[in-house]
Here is the input.
Amino acid sequence: MARKPKSAEENMDRHDEILAAAVSVFSEKGYSGATTSQVAKAAGVAEGTIFRYFKTKKELLSAIVMTFISSLGGDIVLSGVEKIVMESDGKDLRVVLKEILKDRLRLLHRMMPVFQVVLTEALYHPEIRNALHENVLKRAMATVQPVFTRLEESGELRSGLSRETIMRTIIGAFASLIAQSVFTGMSETSFEAEADCTIDLLYHGLICKKEKQS
Amino acid sequence: MARKPKSAEENMDRHDEILAAAVSVFSEKGYSGATTSQVAKAAGVAEGTIFRYFKTKKELLSAIVMTFISSLGGDIVLSGVEKIVMESDGKDLRVVLKEILKDRLRLLHRMMPVFQVVLTEALYHPEIRNALHENVLKRAMATVQPVFTRLEESGELRSGLSRETIMRTIIGAFASLIAQSVFTGMSETSFEAEADCTIDLLYHGLICKKEKQS
Amino acid sequence: MARKPKSAEENMDRHDEILAAAVSVFSEKGYSGATTSQVAKAAGVAEGTIFRYFKTKKELLSAIVMTFISSLGGDIVLSGVEKIVMESDGKDLRVVLKEILKDRLRLLHRMMPVFQVVLTEALYHPEIRNALHENVLKRAMATVQPVFTRLEESGELRSGLSRETIMRTIIGAFASLIAQSVFTGMSETSFEAEADCTIDLLYHGLICKKEKQS
Amino acid sequence: MARKPKSAEENMDRHDEILAAAVSVFSEKGYSGATTSQVAKAAGVAEGTIFRYFKTKKELLSAIVMTFISSLGGDIVLSGVEKIVMESDGKDLRVVLKEILKDRLRLLHRMMPVFQVVLTEALYHPEIRNALHENVLKRAMATVQPVFTRLEESGELRSGLSRETIMRTIIGAFASLIAQSVFTGMSETSFEAEADCTIDLLYHGLICKKEKQS
DNA sequence: GATGAATGAGGATTCATTCAT
DNA sequence: CATGAATGAATCCTCATTCAT
Here is the structure.
């Protein structure tokens, strides 16, 4: 890889600094409620500089959404889950779920502001919704499939549960937990407890009781 | 030019018409993204008229939030659930959950836009979050308590599940279903199927499998 | 003025109430700074009612100015001075000046708000200035002429003083006293003292000192 | 960082251009009657530019008032009078008064519009009145004191005249002359004549006729 | 007549975007 | 390239005026 001139490298930095600043500001005031001048201040650049990297304010938002999608849906990020899934054979579902949840949570905490911005905008822009659906949800489902396939094949999974429903319910349950933890500032330990409890609930909802383990 | 003189009774309507229009516009573009002129157009009134009824645009938002909270958290609305809860004794939990879900869903469909506006703003305004927590969540939990208390007393409820976790998980699971149904335009019947499936999952997650206790 | 029919008389009342309210409001916030709604509230009438009596806000101002001019310049009002002037023969100028000042002051205190409104507007509207000049100043001068004519004829008035200068100086001196008394809330007695002192100054400036004064 | 090779200078200009335009427009239509768009046009800038230099329209007014007060009350400006006063020893009071009047008049002609704006607003804002009183009137009186002190000590000043009254009367007399000259567009020569006449009047009102020195 | 709700042109102010330096 | 002053369209809001009741 030939080294690019310094200025190009700096440009990249600037680009990302502005993006990061925009995420921070947008997540605090919302996209429409934020001003480019606030973003500029947060990024430590002049207002005009923003428009060198992003033609319009809207493009700045798009860049955030795209970044989010590709980092959440992209290989790099899902790989954490992928690894967990691949190594899940024979493990108790509860353990696997917990691992996945913790992996996702780590990510989400890091990305909370982006997440908030993207979700909010998704409410108002179907194309963002679609992009999320295609690139994040479907991918996530595909990644996790093996776990359920295995459970199904071994007859442990209760019958009558569609994959979609399962995924949706798990996501909903986790999402509500994460939301609560983010907004109420739950402690690490009580989050753990709540997580275990939630997983336990889901586990029993999913697994067939063959009276194997109590 | 002065126009549209109406009876005193229709003044109330005017107020509500503007409110309704605001909900509609805000839910489409977000509060900050919407303009008072758009609201006026949607309400079929002159822009100035809005400010006869709501001193500022912000007050318009507040009115929406308040309306939402009091109609969702208020007696009238919860009474649907209350009735279900009161008559739930002896019924299968699945049936009760289904009834509650359907009741809430009916309401939510009617209020979807308000809901969206309020939730979005709640992301950015802690005081709205608090108001929702105090007036909606707590109330809802209190209303549903008897169901779980009964299950607990009869030993049907699996042990180790905190009320909070149960409520959160149910809400999360339902919310994700409703969100999907709203955004993907799920059909009535497939919604029913999904709902049954979700309820089934939750039911087995909640209930102790010792067979019916007698 | 011939009396109008009763209904018209009642109209006059309303008319004057609104005018009085307008004076009060305009004098507090200035013409442009005041709103017709404030005037309406002060007058205890509906906003629309104002426009029955005065086609526009501007006309309301005109009416105030006209009222002022005709009441200050008109017979009724000047007659106080006229009487003083007519009875001034042989009196000491100081006494006459004092009487005039006191007469004007009484009037001015009653009319302070109108005065303020009219003067302020006069700054911005030459036609008001002209009207004031023609109808108030000239008249006032004409009224007071006899006093100075008499002094001149008796040789008491110092030579080299034009009537205009005399009048202007007296007016300026009195005006500054009144302004101070109005804005600083001078007490009745200290006002008296200041007035005597001012008159004394003017008197010696006007009168020829050949005579021994006792 | 933000270096301003010439922009420092130009900024000042811009700032002052807007201020000057505001003075001009406000003095023609009054503060409330003027619009920021008129000011912008008069200043030859876009409307938005005004708000880069003055946060609000009101702040623009404040800036005018402050400028006025500091330039009228400030050392630089009073120094003209101060010099006259310092060099007044032995001179005839008439000459001194004339010199002061001419000095002030020159200033006032230059500042007439500001003056008008400030005085008008002073009518409605006690704090402006106070500022004027403290920073202009008191200062002016302090500056002129020596003249009268000297006269008093030499026994030339008629007894029974308080300093306050003297000052007020002189100011009122001069003010009325200046007002007339400004509004009627008096010629230079007739102004001179009127001024001399006014001064003569005041002089004889102030000075004791001992026929000593002349 | 009197009312005051409705109007909408117009005002102050903001802010994304441009461009000369 | 970066800057930030300048821009002016767009926004929220006001208020004189009208008119159906």
User: Anything to note?
Assistant: The longest helix of chain A spans residues 93-124. Chain A has nine helices and no strands. Residues 7, 11, 14, 40, 45-49, 52 of chain A lie near DNA strand F (CB under 10 Å from a C1'). Residues 14 and 90 of chain A are 47 Å apart (CA to CA).
